[in-house]
Amino acid sequence: MSDQNTLSALATRYGVGETLTGAILIVDDDAENIAVLQAFLDSEYVVHAATSGKQALEIAVTTNIDVVIADHRMPEMTGTELLEELRGLKPDVAGILLTAYTDTPVLISAINRARVFRHMKKPWDPDELLAAVAQASEYVHQCRLNIRLVNLLARRSEELGNALDELRATQQHMQHMERLGTMGRLAAGVTHDLKNVLQSLMLLERIATTWQVPTQVMDPLQVSVAAMRNLLGSLTSLNQFASRGALDMATTPLEPADVLRDAETVARMDVAYRERKLVVSVGPKLPTIQGDRQKLVQVMVNLLRNALQATEVNHTIRVDARVGPHETVVFAVEDEGTGIPEHLARRVFDPFFSTKGELGMGMGLYMARLIAESHGGSLRLVAPEHLKRGTRFEVVLPAAPRLH
User: What's the predicted TM-score (pTM) here?
Assistant: First the structure.
């Protein structure tokens, strides 16, 4: 099968449609020449006529044509100049240039600048002219067919690419949900056992309070109870999201300073806490926020632990809460670590992705972001304000409505 037949078969298969209009534009400043050509071509083509290059361009802009037959010698604009300009407007239209003499510079210009399909001398032979128009029409047909098939292929390729992307995303989502389900079931079992341990610790805490044990014993015990409660809260949140795809919220009015204080209390259980300097700053006159205290503390503890692991011994971690724009409160944790590379920064909130490699589960920041968004806020990674390196996470939460 020839290339032309193959293209035609593809055009039919994919419904490309008709490429030719059957319209021809004759351009000549001699009305008699136009009349002769028009009478000769009328039986097979839809013929349009113009007596100047300017008029021809006006017709070409508003009319779909296949072939232009132009006389070279015309005032104001030659046929070559017309076909050159027309090529910029309608590059898929073929041009036939008629001349009454052999002029090499004209031919060179017609070929190089106007890229005419055919050059013919006057007086023209009727059969030769008909053959030239037919060839020009076939040339236009092939050009337009190629363009439409290429565009169709590009669209199909783009559609296929989008479909593959959607399939990969769906497959990844299913894998994530399967892993979440497994982790949720595991969390439910661990939570049941840890509740028994917590009950024992809480009983021990009440006994210690009654007996008024020394501060050196009471403080670590209370910190342990707070840490156990936070761990249970994290496991419960994971189980809730894994089983229902949503988080339960027990929202109450909260003071931002209380959230930071609770988070610091839990973070003190980390051995790295004693070897780093923690600077906590709470802005003046912070508005209250409406939220789930345990879950917001969980977010801040996660950020603090990440900062402790990223920061070298004797270096500083800054934690602050301040008024943000548009009636918000911004909590921030900033460390002096090595920072997160740009190619990884885009993925830190993805489930099961961890910059710690096999040492991390990749759920901490993912759950923290879910909790922030469940409060109508956001969790974002920004450039540190005080350092050229390091990492800064900001939790932005809406302030509670003011009571009038």
Answer: 0.50
